[in-house]
Specification:
Number of helices: 8
Radius of gyration: 27 Å
Oligomer: single chain
Strand content: 35-45%
Distance between the termini: 55 Å
Structural class: mainly beta
């Protein structure tokens, strides 16, 4: 599968925001870096705040680290490999001249396969696919691993109940013996009639894996190869019945997590990787070689595409200095330059001058040697390399092929046919005829096996403003990424990855259910929840023993993805990432307002008050959508349809940056900073959401914590949560305060001190239970903390 390169600037922030959710502030690298400017570099350990805490999600790590080290990569790589004779010869480039123009033939009439019921959306979120020698198609999806006999229209979905460590699978590969391997966050599993899982506890090379595994590949001897970032550094893992960990040079791995996104093994046994440092690297069993832009002489940094049966390596010469535009496209400072083939002696470049439709092209190679090109910007055509020329065919109407299909979730079958993702399923094109297939009909299990966390130490008991609290600390599972923590009367709930819902018990056991789509947020509504993300928001209710997924909210199809939800006596209000606002009196049937508050440009928190709704709208432009809302002006609506500003200026004061708001019993508390992300902490209180008063400064119960003698006191305020028991304000560096009325606050002394890493810590109160998710130092470890309140 071809993975798009990590983009710079706005694209990094978009990736961070998508994975972490609206709680992750933009410019996080700059914020934390600025907060630590006084720390001596030689005293700052790798597991300090700029280092990834173990088990935290790799997409966030990758977005963070690429932004920090990107300027250093080219110099580091080129310095190491100057003088290599092999690379000198490889830099002798050949540019293929334009061939005779071949008219694009019309696609043959479609031979549509027997229709089947479209599966639930997690299964449609395909991360990777692979073909077995018999043509069986394996899909790694958000909803599990699918084994699909396309010809027989039969499919089987495998998930946690079948032995996979987690629901979402990121990579899949098939060996010559027909066995399948799948991987996810810190785990791999092998299927030979049943799944056998390998994870951190299963001794992956005797090393703890940090974050998601990268590429996986199975060679001709059925040996598994895996790229992994471990607690000992970047490694290439080999499994042939026992695990072997091979060290990866820093010049190749850089600081990315994982250090490579794609892996293939050539017929001669050489392992090739799409490494984030040089772009492409190879390992011949003894020596590592970096195939960087500087070393090869290619016009762009190469992005690894695959290995052909003849042993040649293919790369994509993608654009540089790319960023997401306001319209949602991608703009590059230096445009793409086509693709290139390396025959172990020289590089041959193919571009639009050689017959490609566009210089931004993605390559996929079949087992019979057929080479295909697809185009992210021209998604209705594909090209095939035939006798040295690119033959282009229009396989559908413009826009037929989805963005995912053009960019990553596609592949070629052993017979050479190209498979592409479309808006409705998969399309097969063999160069003469096409067939379309809906996603296989599979049932997503409603219930998940319990997730049991390992306790760390004995419980501790403290006295607080909320009552006596018994704290229990558990080590977070590296296979499960818990986020979007939310309190309910039934206790806190959390998202496990993107498609699983979990709810806690004091013994560290979390029950679970699979959601019908990708979610990134949870909001309490009445006695239940609403789960929302890149799919219609859906009700979740308590049936007396567990949470059960219900009906979709009736939102306009033009409303877009839901960003925030608030519920109160006047109904339920939602805001969308496209700036829209909608309201429902009954909590179900929503009507969008024609004139959203502030024009819908940057809406922060939305509040449901006793007499209507309040939206906090930024008073001036910010660097990104997920920034703290700067100097927000409250806009008020009695019915959710007609909006007007409640004050001419921000009641929070000059320089206020609001990060979060929580309320109970008609009172709201907001937290943030003054002046900048590194400015002083501040908190405000309001009884109507429109007029706000700044609270006295919060005092720490203890000095800033230290790690190896270095202060670890950041100025980033993390958030605030509230429930019937009261309020808790918590900071990025582990401080916390509690209040029963929102006016008088005292430090939460003796709590476990949960800290943030690449994303803020999260705290939620539900019933008599407090749950916190974050990290603790000494050495850094991701944890889940459960506190039981005795009033």
């Amino acid at each position: 599968m071809n993975d798009q390169p990590i983009l710079a600037d706005a694209a990094l922030e978009a990736m961070l925001a998508r994975r972490a959710g609206p709680a992750a502030p933009a410019g996080l690298a700059e914020s934390i870096g600025a907060a630590l400017v006084a720390l001596p570099e030689d005293r700052r350990p790798w597991w300090s705040v700029l280092a990834p805490p173990a088990g935290r999600n790799s997409a966030l790590r990758l977005a963070w680290i690429v932004a920090v080290v990107g300027l250093l990569m080219a110099a580091t790589v080129s310095a190491v490999f100057v003088g290599s004779e092999l690379l000198r010869r490889s830099s002798q480039l050949t540019v293929v001249p334009p061939p005779t123009v071949v008219p694009a033939p019309s696609a043959a009439p479609a031979s549509t396969a027997a229709p089947v019921v479209v599966a639930t959306r997690p299964v449609e979120q395909v991360n990777d696919l692979a073909f077995g020698a018999d043509g069986t198609l394996w899909l790694a999806t958000r909803g599990g691993v699918i084994q699909w006999d396309v010809a027989a229209s039969a499919a089987t979905l495998y998930g946690q109940a079948d032995g996979l460590p987690a629901t979402e699978a990121l990579r899949v590969a098939v060996g010559p013996d027909g066995s399948a391997w799948a991987s996810g966050a810190a785990w791999v599993a092998r299927f030979d009639g049943a799944w056998t899982a390998h994870s951190e506890s299963g001794d992956l090379g005797a090393l703890g894996v940090v974050g998601d595994l990268g590429g996986i590949a199975v060679d001709a001897d059925a040996t598994l190869w895996v790229t992994a970032s471990t607690n000992e550094g970047p490694r290439l893992l080999r499994y042939d019945g026992t695990w072997t960990a091979i060290e990866v040079p820093e010049s190749i791995a850089g600081d990315a997590y994982p250090w490579a996104s794609r892996l293939e093994v050539a017929p001669d046994g050489t392992v090739w990787a799409g490494a984030w440092g040089p772009g492409v690297a190879s390992y011949d069993g003894t020596t590592w070689t970096a195939w960087s832009k500087a070393a090869t002489g290619l016009p762009r940094t190469p992005s690894f595409a695959g290995i052909a049966p003849d042993g040649s390596a293919w790369v994509e010469l993608q654009g540089e200095g790319c960023a997401v535009t306001d319209a949602g496209g991608v703009s590059c400072r230096t445009p793409a330059a086509g693709v290139a083939r390396f025959d172990r002696a020289r590089w041959t470049i193919y571009s639009t001058a050689s017959g490609l439709v566009d210089d931004e092209a993605n390559i996929v190679i079949s087992a019979d040697g057929t080479v295909w090109a697809t185009y992210p910007a021209v998604r209705s055509v594909v090209s095939r390399l035939k006798d040295g020329e690119w033959v282009t065919t229009q396989v559908g109407e413009p826009g037929l092929l989805s963005q995912a299909g053009a960019a990553r979730a596609f592949g070629a079958a052993p017979d050479g046919a190209l498979w592409l993702t479309t808006a409705e399923g998969l399309l097969r094109w063999d160069g003469a005829a096409k067939s379309t297939y809906h996603w296989p009909a599979v049932e997503t299990p409603a219930a998940l096996p319990p997730l049991a966390l390992e306790p760390l130490g004995e419980p501790t008991v403290i006295e607080s403003a909320l009552g006596t609290i018994t704290w229990r600390v558990y080590e977070a599972s590296p296979e499960h990424f818990l986020s979007s923590l939310t309190g309910t009367p039934r206790g806190p709930v959390v998202l496990d990855g993107f498609v699983d819902l979990r709810w806690s018990g004091p013994d560290g056991t979390w029950e679970g259910a699979t959601l019908p789509g990708e979610g990134w947020g949870l909001a309490p509504v009445g006695d239940g929840l609403v789960a929302y993300g890149s799919w219609p928001a859906r009700h979740v209710s308590w049936d007396g023993s567990r949470w059960v997924v219900g009906d979709d909210l009736d939102l306009s199809p033009f409303f877009g993805n839901v960003e925030r939800i608030a519920a109160g006596p006047r109904g339920v209000i939602v805001t969308g990432m496209a700036g829209g606002v909608a309201v429902a009196r009954d909590g179900q049937r929503f009507v969008a307002t024609a004139q959203p508050p502030g024009g819908g440009d940057t809406i922060g928190s939305v509040l449901a008050t006793a007499d209507g709704f309040v939206a906090l709208v930024t008073a001036r432009e910010t660097a990104g959508r997920f920034d703290p809302v700067v100097e927000p002006v409250p806009w008020f609506s009695a019915d959710g349809y007609a909006w007007e500003p409640a004050s001419p200026a921000s009641p929070f004061g000059e320089g206020a940056r609001i990060r979060g708001v929580a309320g109970r019993d008609g009172r709201f508390v907001a937290v943030g900073n003054i002046g900048s992300d590194q400015g002083p902490w501040a908190a405000w209180v309001s009884d109507d959401g429109r007029s706000w008063e700044r609270l006295p400064d919060l005092e720490r119960a203890e000095p800033c914590p230290t790690i190896e003698g270095v202060d670890y006191c950041l100025t980033l305020m993390a958030g605030v949560t509230a429930d019937d028991a009261g309020w808790i304000i918590y900071s990025w560096d582990g401080a916390a305060w509690a209040s029963t009325d929102g006016l008088t606050w005292e430090p939460l002394r003796g709590w476990p001190g949960i800290r943030g890493g690449y994303i803020p810590p999260e705290v939620a109160i539900g019933g008599d239970t407090i749950v916190a998710i974050g990290s603790v130092p000494g050495p850094w470890k991701d944890v889940v903390v459960v506190g039981t309140i005795e009033p």
